[in-house]
Design brief:
The protein is of the alpha/beta class and about 260 residues long. About 35% of the residues lie in helices and about 25% in strands. The longest helix is centred in the first third of the chain and has 23 residues. It starts with 6 loop residues before the first helix and ends with a strand.
């Protein structure tokens, strides 16, 4: 805040004025002082030193630094800084501390991607979708669903992942279509149809059958598994001679029953 020169007001001899005039001058002084304060507040925080830290790389640290410096005049207090930085897509949350009078420390906690979302974004464990130019997802699963279904799809992904862990199967792609039907593709490139209802019951049935020795040894020849049956699953085999031979060994080319 700029210094306010009070010598002008003392030279007016306020104490020698009549009570009414003295009160008027006092009110005028307070009004001018308030105007000066408000004008100063409009300039925002005065940040001379800015420290950005956390489990982020140099590029991310630079991006936060440049963002804060660019928006400095719009930040009235540290709460505004916190809200502003947390609005950046790849930032999960930040802790902001002001070291009086002109130093600011920002600890950044970035978003942790659990999977890809609809080909053009990431999704975190809470089902929040975000974009980031700083993430390299690598071997992350691919989740797909309509707008607004993010949390539902993430929750289902977590449940299915736990259900299939006893047979060492992982989900590579999980899809909820516009009609409310679920399907996933595992690490063996086998597509599993789950439908709309009794999802966990159906996946448990799939796990039970896929844990059999015959199924496990022939999984590389399976194209698709349909679990939408009351007491079994239907298997579509890959279209080659060897796959047909294995299908015959199951005494059926269509349905496996419990």
């Amino acid at each position: 805040m700029k210094d306010v020169n009070l010598s002008y007001f003392s030279g007016l001899g306020v104490s020698r004025l009549q009570p009414g005039k003295a009160l008027g001058m006092a009110m005028l002084f307070l009004g001018l002082l308030a105007t000066i304060i408000l004008q100063n507040e409009e300039t925002g925080l005065k940040i001379e030193q800015l420290a950005v830290h956390g489990e982020i790389d140099q590029a991310q640290r630079k991006a936060i630094y440049e963002f804060v410096k660019k928006q400095e005049k719009q930040f009235r207090d540290i709460d505004a800084v916190k809200l502003g930085v947390e609005a950046i897509g790849w930032v999960h949350h930040v802790n902001v501390m002001q070291i009086w009078p002109d130093k600011l420390s920002i600890e950044v906690v970035r978003e942790q991607p659990i999977a890809y979302w609809n080909d053009d974004a990431f999704i975190n464990v809470e089902g929040k979708v975000f974009e980031s130019a700083y993430e390299v997802g690598g071997a992350l699963a691919q989740l797909r669903g309509p707008v607004g279904s993010e949390s539902q799809v993430m929750k289902q992904y977590q449940q299915l992942t736990m259900a299939m862990s006893p047979v060492d199967q992982t989900i590579e792609v999980l899809t909820l279509d516009d009609r409310g039907s679920w399907q996933f593709t595992n690490q063996h490139d086998v597509r599993v149809l789950l439908g709309k209802n009794d999802i966990m019951e159906r996946v448990h049935r799939f796990v039970l059958i896929s844990s059999s020795a015959g199924f496990a040894t022939s999984v590389e020849f399976i194209k698709q598994v349909d679990t939408r049956y009351s007491n079994g699953i239907a298997v579509d085999w890959k279209d080659d001679f060897e796959a047909r031979g294995i299908a015959t060994a199951f005494n059926t080319q269509r349905e496996l029953k419990l």
